[in-house]
Amino acid sequence: MADPSTYRPAPGSIPVEPGVYRFSDGDGRVIYVGKAKSLRSRVSSYFQDLSALHPRTLAMVTTAAKVEWTVVRTEVEALQLEYSWIKEYDPRFNVRYRDDKSYPYLAITLNEEYPRALVMRGAKKRGVRYFGPYAHAWAIRETLDQLLRVFPIRSCSKGVFNRSRQIGRPCLLGYIGKCSAPCVSRVSAEEHREIVEDLVAFLEGKTATYIKRLEREMKAASAELDFERAARLRDDIAALERAMEANAVVLGDGTDADVVALADDPLEVAVQIFYVRGGRVRGQRGWVADKAEDVPAGELLERFLLQLYGEAGGETVPREIIVPELPEDADEADALRELLAELRGGKVDLRVPQRGDKRALLETVSRNAAQTLKLHKTKRASDLTTRSRALEEVQEALELDEPPLRIECYDISNLAGTEVVGSMVVFEDGLPRKSEYRKFGVRGTEGIDDVASIREVLRRRFRRQHVAAVNDAGDPGVSVEDGEISEPDARENRGPSRIDPETGRPQRFAYTPGLVIVDGGQPQVNAARQAMDESGVPDIPVVGLAKRLEEVWLPDTEDPVIMPRTSEGLYLLQRVRDEAHRFAITYHRQRRSKSMTDSLLDGIPGLGPARRKTLLAHFGSLKKLRAAGPEEISQVKGIGPALAENIAHALARSQPARSVNTATGEISEG
Predict the structure, then answer these.
(1) How many alpha carbons lie under 13 Å from residue 30 in its C-beta half-sphere?
(2) Per the database record, which ranges form the UvrC family homology region profile domain (predicted)?
(3) Which of 379, 393, 453, 590 reaches 20 to 30 Å from 478, CA-CA?
(4) Is the N-terminal amide bond of 170 cis, ω within 30° of 0?
(5) Which residues of the chain have pLDDT under 70?
């Protein structure tokens, strides 16, 4: 634990101007970023009596080793710089609002010749129109099922669409009237796009206009005695009304707005957001985060809005954002409005409603936030206690100097000595840190068994850290060009392994673990110890976890450490080991699948690496490529009719023969 007085800035050295400051730990990693209207006032507050600090702030200042700052001219510049630093460094003590899943959207692929409707998650793509997010994918599918009756646009995948086109028959949706079947030219591309545009307009909230139009058409059909068409239009109207029932009107003026509320206590904050489009609640989303310091609700909301809209993109910023509180300083509130308007490319109304429908809706969102925080605290109380107990039990059983807050685990996967790969997973504070996971393609310079592979992987991982540390210390005798470091393996490391002393930017392989685990018994752990000693990191503890009896092996010992079967510490070690095994198996399967694909396509004359890549990108998988005929293959750019015939013939020849067991009816391949 560091003493903040050892790095406290000299009196009078901190400027009084506005700016952004950052605390860094002993390894140079940025652990906290903040902004201030007066740097001197804010930064000095961290060096007061430690007993008066917020618990998380106390942990931060005793972890830090230095503080730096940058002076800016305006509040908007301070907001922009603070956000960009938080995004770049991912400081562990900043409030990071994280939810536990990627929320689904209803997406319309307007960038395709025949746009389709589907459920999408993850990063947004250019040319795709998104509606949502929704709490559940099934809610989107139920709504879409109702809408396809009235707006029969394509909802099938590219493979199904191309297959129907090839055989000249639509899929089931085309037969039951929930797709206009552009794949078999029942409608032209222009007619299909008109239907898509009607659906987009309906989802944008222009529902009343469309329903009135259908009602007029229904009455006209009835007057012309076309009762069959009138009945179909009546059913269409009923389907649209059922789809609209799921989203009751909450704001009568048809407002597009995001309604945000929070609930907090001294240690944590929960945020809820309702997405209102066309006056209807289209989706809901929630986050929970640890508080780094005791700040007002207005400042917490400011940081949340910057993270939410900064990461999602400016197109997600609505015209109106309803919040329960604004930053206390009017200049900060104006700066936030200006920055949000800059992200959106137009005016943003950031407001606190005092009465009416918007106030009532905000109170509903606030109740949701309070309930989320209550449920989270109930779950986390036991979870946090369990994790702390597990780390303490591991420390005690292995006789470590301190609990292993960062654990790295390594595993090897191969099939009869081929496609040998290694995995590295990282757990911090007892939880997986997936952004720190790494994959290794084992070169096999020392052999193909697990022991040699473990030795190679550990040597490559820790040699990088050691050389970087030596270079940082200014030793001219060792450099990253020496030995194995001269040709870095892009499969495990795509950047330098050291920390930039000027920026503090997190780098790969830069942080020292408190404990290293290898999957295996004494041979594997001895090999790991040897590799780490040779790499210049002899002081990092290493153990092996054997699967058969779940024994914990230490280097050069005759007997293993036996932890109680009910031990939380043993359970943590098992979780880490199993995660490393899963990660290694996944990577091995990817490598093996690619190798098999390459081997099948390798011997085809005229099919080079570029064309192989184009083929697989077009069809998505070898299975779909096998199912395609020569005509479909020849439609791929760069593939002529003759080459398409060769490809189809070669793949058909490589198909495994199938036989049927007449007694059981089972189909086998061989």
Answers:
(1) 26
(2) 259-532
(3) 453
(4) no
(5) 1-2, 96-103, 122-123, 132-139, 205-209, 239-254, 292-293, 311-315, 378-382, 415-419, 444-448, 464-510, 548, 592-603, 620-622, 653-670
Instruction: Say what the pLDDT of residue 517 is.
Output: 94
Q: Which of 577, 550, 554 is nearest to 427 (CA)?
A: 577
Residues 627, 623: Cα–Cα separation, whole Å: 6
Q: Which residues contact 244 (CB under 8 A, 6 or more apart)?
A: 207, 280
pLDDT in tens, 69-81: 988 887 778 888 8
Would you mind telling me the total number of residues written for the chain in this entry? 670
Residue in 149, 153, 139 with CA at minimum distance from that of residue 238? 149
**Residue 457 to residue 526: CA distance in whole angstroms:** 14
> On the CB side of 575, how many CA atoms lie within 13 Å of its CA?
16
SS (H, E, C) 590-613: HHHHHHHHHHHHHCCCCCCHHHHH
Query: Residue 373 in contact with residue 263, Cβ under 8 Å?
Result: yes
pLDDT at site 481: 32
User: How many other CB atoms are found less than 10 A from the CB of residue 198?
Assistant: 16
**Tokens matching residue 28:** 């140079």
Cβ atoms of 497 and 424 closer than 8 Å: no
CA distance 581 to 647: 37
Q: Residues with Cβ < 8 Å from 620, sequence gap 6 or more?
A: 158, 159
Q: Kindly list the structural domains of the chain, giving each domain's residue range(s) and its CATH number in brackets, ordered by start.
A: 4-89 (3.40.1440.10), 105-204 (no CATH), 257-375 (3.30.420), 404-590 (3.30.420.340), 603-660 (1.10.150.20)
Residue 611 near residue 441, CB atoms below 8 Å: no
Query: Are residues 622 and 159 in contact, defined by beta-carbon separation less than 8 angstroms?
Result: no
pLDDT score recorded for residue 600: 62
Alpha-carbon distance of 488 to 480, in angstroms, equals 9
